[in-house]
Specification:
Elements lengths: L5 H27 L1 H11 L3 H13 L5 H15 L2 E6 L5 E8 L1 H8 L3 H22 L4 E5 L10 E7 L2
Antiparallel strand pairs: 1-2, 2-4, 3-4
Helix pairs in contact: 1-2, 3-4, 3-6, 5-6
Length: 163
């Protein structure tokens, strides 16, 4: 058996996670067509954020609210390899996350499927981050702004406390 470092183990799982996401999508696309594969992918991303958010909340011993969302979501983004900055309003009622690098878009470019990145990104990111917001309270909304996959320099994720 190989003696792997923690970093190597982490890289192995990260690579496996990203590879399986792309492989199953391409196999579903081959069998059912792009639109159906995207529908299935969207269904997966209606569940995955719940799993991730709940696990990180438990690991951090956090509850609901914008501060907990920021802590957990920025942890997830860092683990997934995003480059980002956060900005929270003075009143603590809004959180803006600016992504300057998206590993998922980079994978699409590397695989020669950049032309599909915008369609996939818009659909999946809207679903994923709306669910992240919902996991931290019904009073938190999400709005997707500019997107790298739509030709912008950065992606803008905006979370707001309502009511």
């Amino acid at each position: 058996m190989l003696k792997l470092t923690e970093k190597q183990i982490s890289e192995y799982y990260k690579r496996s996670y990203t590879a399986v996401d792309g492989l199953w999508f391409m196999k579903a696309e081959e069998r059912y067509g792009f639109d159906t594969a995207l529908d299935i992918d969207n269904d997966v991303w209606k569940v995955m954020p719940k799993i991730q958010a709940r696990k990180l909340k438990a690991m951090g011993n956090l509850t609901d609210g914008l501060d907990a969302l920021r802590e957990c979501l920025t942890t997830k983004l860092a683990l997934d390899g995003f480059a980002f900055e956060t900005e929270q309003s003075d009143d603590g009622r809004s959180l803006k996350i600016t992504l300057s690098e998206c590993p998922w878009h980079n994978i699409m470019i590397k695989s020669g499927r950049e032309h599909l990145s915008g369609k996939i990104g818009t659909r999946i990111c809207t679903t994923e981050y709306q669910l992240w917001a919902a996991e931290f309270g019904d009073h938190i909304t999400f709005e997707l702004g500019d997107q790298i996959c739509q030709g912008f320099e950065c992606c803008t994720l905006m979370f707001k406390v309502t009511g």
